Amino acid sequence: MDTQKEALRRIISTLANKNEELQTFLETVDTTLTGLQEESWKVTSELEAELERLSSALEEKGVELRGAIKEEKQRKEAELQKQLSEGKFALLSCEELLEFANQTLNITNEEEFLKAAKQIKERVTMAPAFRLTTRPAVSENMSQFTVDFSVERAGLQRLHFLPVPRAPEIDASSCVVRDNAVTVAWQPSSEVIVDGDSGSGGGGGGGGGGRIERYELEYRKTNKDSSLRAAGEACWEKIHDIRETQVTVTGLKFDSRFVVVRVRARNKAAAGEFSEPVAIETIAYNFGFDAATAHPELKVQGDTVTWEPQGVKGHDPRLKGKENKSSRSATPSPNKTAGSRAGRDRFAGESYTVLGDQEMSGGCHYWELRPLADWKSFSVGVAYRASLGRFDQLGKNAGSWCLHASQWLQSSLAAKHNNRAKALDWPLPQRIGIYCNYDNGDLSFIDVDRLRLLHSFKTKFSQTLVPAFTVWCGGISVTTGLQVPSFMGKFLSTNRSLSNLSQ
Hints:
With 503 residues, this protein is an alpha+beta fold. 27% of the residues lie in helices and 25% in strands. The strands form 5 sheets. A 7-stranded antiparallel beta sheet has the order 11-12-23-14-19-20-21, with no helix packed on it. It has a 6-stranded antiparallel beta sheet with strand order 13-22-15-16-17-18, with no helix packed on it. Strands 2, 3, 4 and 8 form a 4-stranded antiparallel beta sheet that branches. The longest helix has 104 residues, at 2-105. It is elongated, with a radius of gyration of 47 Å.
């Protein structure tokens, strides 16, 4: 029966995986359908807008050409009307002079005849008919305004949808992961296709409309080296309007094994298919606070730890000056506050400590700490989990190393290990980077804002390590999912003056 149960469990596991795969598939199809409807509405609207602009351009050109023809017609009409008027006047004058000349031939008196003949000669010399050009000033020909839109008409008949850019190809060898940023590079395809007519390759109105104008990149985090999104995983994040063939995605928290990226090209109106997704490895050190180890007076919430003493009112800034009128500080000393009894794994007494929940047994690790407002004292470092008793404080035994900062009574900064402390002459940092190279036995603390190496321990780790923190009065926040930053290379190569505390 046990064999049958095991076989049934395997079947159940297979069915569950298939069920998850089908749910992801249906979700993808549904998303694609919605996108198709939105995209078809968009391209239809753009087509109508383009046709409207084309119609407007034709109408404007028609108005311009009609105006030119009308202007030329009016100019020629004016000149011809002027010639008509002058010709009619000359004809009338010529007819009158002809009649007068005929009448003069019938005069018998020599003196009157000579006088009339002289008048006729003078009038002929001045007659408009003999000064008028007897050829039309302009012709009826308007051939200079003849239009031939055969080329444009043929172009319109060849007009097709803009060619769709082929999918670019991501160049995995040129992709760079550095300082929690991913630079993705790709090569554009030199070919274009028209959706539904891959053999035509044409269209675009012959004006280079298929030229790629920009790119769109999508990325998402995943723990699988696969393009399919598993249930519960993040959706695609989008970056639009990329003008180059590479882009850098910054400000990432590397809390997954991979970042999957894909890219597509877009021309004036059409977006092509996405490239084949590429999974880029984004390994970094991630951990949280192990609340089961936290001192009862430490409150763990997400990536923050705050000190909340039990039965003490004076620590609350709102009560200062009200509950305690004396000149003594209302905040109890870290050496005087009593701890409550708690679970077996919790720190107690004066050890206001909490550990990280992920061990380090090899490799390089990095995380950062920021003190919260109104903090008084904290420590940060690493420890062998088994070496710390419930009442042990960080830096006071051979199995813990830490940086201790205090604003209690006076400001101080010190490196602590094996109950020995080395004072550090440096202002209290507001952002501390912790670097641990387990294999080389390096533990370094960095003032990240000033890029200053505060202190380095050099030792040989013999057990698995965990991040360790002490908080008294105030609180801290940690940032994980960080790569070892590039600036660490400068400290590791140029500063090897390590403390005698590690000896």
